Amino acid sequence: MNVINRGMGGVSAAYSDIFSINYNNPASYAGFQVFQEQRSKKVSSARVILDAAVSYDSRKLAEPNTTSSFTSNDILFSHVYVGVPIRKNWGLAFGIRPLSRISYDILRTEQLHTPSGMLIDSAFTQYSGSGGSFLPSIGTGFGTNNFRVGVNIGYLFGKKELVTRRGFLSDTISYAASNHTTNTNFGGLFYTVGTQWSVDLSKKAILRLGASGNWKQTINGTQDIHRQTYTRNSSGQEVQVDSVFSQTDSKGSVIYPGTYTAGFMLDLAPGQRTNGWNIGVDYAAGKWNDYRFFGAQDLVQNNWELRFGAQITPSEDALQNGKLKSYRIGFFTGRDYVKVGNDLPVVGFSLGLGLPLRNYSRLSNQASVLNFGLEYIKRGNDQNLIKEDLFRLSLGLNFTDFWFGKRKYD
Predict the structure, then answer these.
(1) Whole-number pLDDT of residue 409
(2) Does residue 365 surpass a pLDDT of 70?
(3) Pick from 3, 373, 5, 52: nearest CA to 210
(4) Which of 25, 191, 234, 380 could cross-link 212 (Cys pair, CB 3.0–4.6 Å)?
């Protein structure tokens, strides 16, 4: 999700904004800003949006009640999207974002014993994984002033490489180690839909309801499986000794489960000189019991999450002059989709800041905003086999300008 929604605890189902792209609910594209000619009702100008972001993740994994822990720090691409208004209550958005990432390298050493307890030798096992998935998509949203629907159509693709190496740590006898490698590539069309419905409570206050999600979908793919023994040469490179098993281009599929998000948001629009605010609540859930990877189940379960978020928005004058910031806060709690032993509880807090950039040209309609988001996410506790603490700092740029404007001369 974009940095604005992250700063509000992930609230997105009913969110709509003329300066950002809420790709979680494509119905929001119908809210892009358009100006019409008074008589002909033709589009005279429209605000086009570029929304891009990166994040810095600091993650700590720990085994409860021990001193064992692992930390990692990563700078990650978040998304880049472009929003284009077509006409009033009709918009288009396209871009790309990552959905998952695999990156680990774990080494375990142990001593092997006979059933009677006699020491055989020392051995090592190395587990490594790499890959991830991406979703380039294009979507449209349309409707009326009070009701909108939208759809995103994308191509979900990715790869997954899992390697397990195992061998003896002997200083007297040289043994050939084993290498089990499974390479998977997958890709296919992926669809999400959404709707938003708003009720005018007053001239400036709006209650907006929203829902979005995807149904269970099947993504086709292929696998290459290799099992071999190897040794290392003088330069440390692996040299195959024997091929135990090899299978290439084995067809299969990834079943992506159905997920949905529903919620509401109460908006008070900013005036020429007065600030506005947004308060929202979302409920999100996923049927991860349906997830399959080439026919295999995983350690996952159905999950849910309850999210709360709020934002104070600047007045129109302050936004244009770059004088006032937007402040955001959020909270969320729920049950994670990963299940290792007991359920993994999830709780998190977020803060956000929107910094409008000054427009130094009076003849330009540009409006740019730097968005910052800070999240703390905790998964698991002392009753789980593992627990995680994640700090995430996100930086986003929303650059907008009026396009398609017709020139007028006196």
Answers:
(1) 46
(2) no
(3) 5
(4) 25
pLDDT at 208: 94
Cα 101 from Cα 70, distance rounded (Å): 17
Average pLDDT, the chain: 87
The residues pairing with 392 across neighbouring beta strands, listed in sequence order, are 57, 375
Q: How far apart are CA 276 and CA 213, in angstroms?
A: 29
In 38-143, which ranges are E strands? 43-62, 69-87, 90-113, 119-143
Reported pTM: 0.86
Rounded to 5 degrees, φ, ψ at 172 are -120, -35
Question: Is the predicted pLDDT of residue 361 greater than 60, yes or no?
Answer: no
* Tokens linked to 280: 């929202």
Indicate the length of the chain as a whole number.
410
Q: Which of 265, 346, 264 is nearest to 304 (CA)?
A: 346
Return the pLDDT at 78.
92
Tokens of 4: 């604005």
DSSP string of 174-239, one letter each residue: ---EEEEEEEEEEEEEEEEEEEEEEEESSSSEEEEEEEEEE--EEEEEEEEEEEEEEEE-TTS-EE
Residue 337 has pLDDT above 60, yes or no: yes
120 pairs with which residues across the strands? none
Tell me the C-alpha distance between 410 and 269, whole Å: 34
